[in-house]
Specification:
heterodimer, A: 170 residues, mainly alpha, 6 helices, elongated, B: 55 residues
């Protein structure tokens, strides 16, 4: 097995696998769960707490570790071109550099804004009702920012191959 | 046509109070799921042209 296969074959495969899990769960949290919670809480007796108690912690665990896996495998894929991409040193690496920056901001949001605040919302960390309400708002907005950023991020990730170079270069 | 009645009055009051409070007029597009998607699409177009100028 050649190093190129491990680097570009397995590396890209794992990067995409982790990315699908990360963004898939992000979309679940934003597109699916709010509506499901609304419907579950509308029934008698309200069943929303079941989702919050049993689904959320498990989904959040896969979500945040998939984010780490995606970023690490992305960095592994960039390899010695890491600086060229992140610092936009080479024109061909500008699209993937923008995608990498968007992914990095999203990872920051997951670990610094979403997860610590979700711990308060879910009651895994002690918090007053006021702190919990504030945490809910911060986690919500950070999650929505990630949905917004995921749209250009996926565009730049998907179009970073050289076959799309003429589209950017004009 | 003249629109009157309690509904029209309530509607006017709501609109009037909003115009007096600047913060009430500000809406975060991220509060709406489709506002978020639209913001993401707009950001994609902006970043696309930014990438083109950087290359």
């Amino acid at each position: 097995m050649s190093w190129d296969f491990i680097h570009y074959g397995l590396g890209r495969w794992l990067h995409i696998l982790f990315g699908v899990m990360w963004v898939g769960l992000l979309y679940y949290f934003n597109f699916v769960q709010p509506e499901a919670l609304k419907r579950a809480n509308a029934q008698t007796p309200p069943a929303g707490a079941t989702i919050t108690k049993h689904v959320m912690p498990v989904a959040l665990a896969w979500f945040r570790w998939a984010a780490v896996g995606t970023w690490v495998m992305g960095a592994f894929l960039l390899g010695d071109r890491f600086n060229q991409a992140f610092l936009f040193r080479e024109p061909a690496y500008v699209p993937i550099g923008i995608g990498a920056w968007l992914g990095t901001i999203m990872l920051f949001n997951v670990w610094v804004l979403i997860w610590p605040n979700q711990k308060r919302v879910l009651g895994l960390v002690a918090a007053s009702e006021e702190e919990r309400a504030k945490a809910r708002r911060v986690a919500f907005l950070a999650s929505r920012i990630n949905v917004m950023l995921s749209i250009p991020m996926i565009f730049f990730m998907a179009s970073s191959g050289m076959m799309h170079y003429p589209v950017f270069a004009g | 046509m003249i629109i009157a009645g309690p509904r029209a009055t309530a509607c006017y009051d709501r609109a009037h109070s909003r115009s007096l409070d600047p913060e009430a007029n500000m809406k975060n597009p991220l509060d709406s799921l489709w506002g978020t998607v639209l913001a993401g699409l707009v950001l994609t177009v902006v970043l696309f042209y930014l990438a083109r100028t950087m290359m």
